[in-house]
Amino acid sequence: MKTKRYFKVLDSSGLPFYSATGSLCKNFDGLVLEYLGIDSLTNQICLKQPEGHSGTVSLDSHNVVEVTKNELYIGDSVFNSPVGSGQITDITDAGYPKVNHIAVARLVHKTEYNEFLVYDPTMSYAKGDWEMFIDDERFPVDSVNKSIVIVRSSTEAIEFCKAVKSLPVNIMFDHDLGGDDISMKFIRWMIDVLYSDDQIFSLRKDFKFSVHSQNPVGAENIKSLMNGLIQDQKNSDALYGTPDQLEFS
Questions:
Q1: Do 99 and 81 meet the contact criterion of CB atoms below 8 Å apart?
Q2: 109, 229: one domain
């Protein structure tokens, strides 16, 4: 999967361009066009014209807004999808990727630079419709559920949440994650973003968590901090979903 830069045209009124058939067109507001570069003479943004038209379009920066698109390719590795990890083996005529020969509506790719790229046209990740298992070596007991996101460090947990712009509906915690890394770092990050003025992240009212750590002190620390967080979010009416779906562990 590769990230490409595109720009959505906000205002192209009065800007003519010629189609491949020679007819004059004057407006393509709302179209998302591929970024080609910057015109060195005019300092305008150069965009590729829509399919069926030749040449480029040059617009001032206030006439466009940047849109990033993640383009899928056969052979790309898959970090997470409804059928688990694997590889993109095909792309359907409708544009959906097949992971291990099964069509999926969403997936996440991890680049060689440890960046997460998200393909999620249905916005299911963004709605919190996903679960996280945080452990440096083990796998979920529910191995049938291939869609569980398995992360091996607090940093990986944080970066995945940032990429999908949401918190999971269910978190399964280990405490010790190798070296000096512990899940408490991820929980403290959650607390920071939940009380941030940006309000990008929130917990669903059907949110739940469990702890499978063999470190009894660490497990109690997680439970204490998470239960306090959930109760405070509940008291402040910050959770979203149906009011009767909170679960404590």
A1: yes
A2: no
Rounded Cα–Cα distance for residues 249 and 134 (Å): 16
- For 167, the domain range is 123-249
Residue 86 shares a structural domain with residue 194: no
Strand ranges in 55-138 using DSSP code E only, listed in sequence order = 56-59, 64-71, 77-78, 86-91, 97-99, 102-103, 107-110, 116-119, 131-134
> Encoding tokens for residue 13?
């009124």
Count: domains in the chain: 3
Based on the fold, state whether residues 130 and 246 are members of the same structural domain: yes
Q: How far apart are CA 7 and CA 30, in angstroms?
A: 10
Model confidence pLDDT, tens digit, residues 100-133: 999 999 999 998 888 899 998 888 898 888 999 9
Same domain, 171 and 217: yes
pTM score, whole prediction: 0.74
User: 51 or 248, which is more confident?
Assistant: 51
- Same domain for 127 and 249? yes
Query: Is residue 182 a contact partner of residue 159, using CB atoms and an 8 Å limit?
Result: no
